[in-house]
């Protein structure tokens, strides 16, 4: 079997019978799930259940061995877990967020409009006062907010975030949740992976994974039922 990818404009993203993994490990087994546009979807599951792999497939950085991916047109924005980003990169917070405007052309000169978007994204995540600091001089939670600001600066139709609130204190977590909501309200397909059930219950839509398979999909009140969570975690 082979995999294919197509683009959509308004329907969000879908995975259809996706199988994907790594050299010695199949991480997703025939996974089918929808990620609506203009909504926040939480991908929920235990450690190793395949959440990051599913985000990687949606982002186009993990190639499925079978199945079909549909995603909104344009380059998706992906926020990886902050501890996977080399902390010693010798760049400032502002430079990090500017990279979100490169649009595939590294070090291109940014327009006035690009620079305005960068300033807005720094302010939105409450990191404007850190703009001149080295990324390496930030705490894990501050760095995470900067990475979210970088992804917002891309103004992508598909925003993917791998546990964006895991290292954050309560105010920072609320800032990110509120930002994701606003971004979704503007029509973007927002998908985040989380272990945090309270966070998942605030989403519009949930995809529950267990051992690389779909356990449930739907509104949080249905998808996060006690039975489904038991299945996902056992
Ligand atoms: N780079 C890799 N090379 C080999 N196997 C991998 C790699 N990344 C993940 N895996 C394996 O694929 C499976 C799914 O991992 P994945 O990272 O997608 O899960 P996850 O639900 O995001 O986990 P966590 O909550 O711990 O982040 C696991 O069994 C994991 O060991």
Compute the gyration radius: what is it? Answer: 17 Å
* SSE class: alpha/beta
Give the helix level as a range of percent. 25-40%
- Which hetero compounds are present in the coordinates? adenosine-5'-triphosphate
Average pLDDT over all residues:
91
N- to C-terminal distance: 30 Å
Summarize the structure.
With 234 residues, the chain is α/β, with parallel strands linked by helices.
Question: How would you explain this protein's 3D organization?
Answer:
- The protein is α/β, with parallel strands linked by helices.
- Helix content is 32%, strand content 28%.
- It has helices spanning 51-59, 93-98, 112-124, 140-153, 170-185, 197-201, 220-223, 226-233; strands at residues 3-8, 13-22, 25-35, 39-44, 66-72, 77-79, 158-162, 189-194, 205-210, 213-218.
- The strands form two sheets. The protein has a six-stranded mixed β-sheet, with helices on both faces.
- α5 (170-185) links the parallel β7 (158-162) and β8 (189-194).
- α3 (112-124) runs antiparallel to α4 (140-153).
- The longest helix is centred in the last third of the chain and has 16 residues, at 170-185.
- The chain is globular.
- It starts with a strand and ends with a helix.
- The structure holds adenosine-5'-triphosphate (ATP).
- Residues 22, 25, 27, 45, 47-53, 193 line the site of adenosine-5'-triphosphate.
């Amino acid at each position: 079997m082979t995999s294919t990818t197509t683009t959509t404009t308004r329907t969000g993203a879908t995975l259809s019978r996706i199988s994907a993994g790594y050299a010695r490990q199949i991480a997703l087994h025939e996974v089918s799930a929808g990620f609506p546009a203009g909504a926040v979807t939480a991908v929920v599951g235990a450690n190793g259940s395949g959440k990051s792999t599913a985000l990687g497939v949606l982002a186009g950085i993990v190639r499925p061995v079978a199945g079909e991916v549909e995603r909104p047109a344009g380059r998706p924005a992906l926020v990886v877990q902050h501890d996977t980003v080399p902390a010693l990169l010798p760049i400032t917070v502002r430079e990090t967020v500017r990279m979100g405007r490169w649009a595939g052309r590294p070090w291109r000169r940014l327009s006035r409009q690009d620079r305005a978007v960068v300033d807005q994204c720094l302010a939105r995540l409450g990191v404007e006062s850190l703009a001149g600091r080295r990324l390496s001089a930030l705490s894990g939670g501050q760095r995470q907010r900067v990475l979210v600001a970088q992804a917002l600066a891309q103004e992508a139709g598909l925003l993917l975030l791998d546990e964006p609130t895991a290292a954050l204190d309560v105010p920072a977590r609320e800032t990110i949740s509120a930002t994701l909501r606003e971004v979704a309200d503007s029509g973007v397909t927002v998908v985040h992976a989380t272990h945090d059930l309270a966070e998942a219950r605030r989403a519009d839509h949930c995809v529950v994974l267990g051992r690389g398979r779909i356990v449930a999909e739907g509104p949080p009140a249905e998808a996060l039922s006690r039975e489904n969570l038991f299945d996902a975690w056992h």
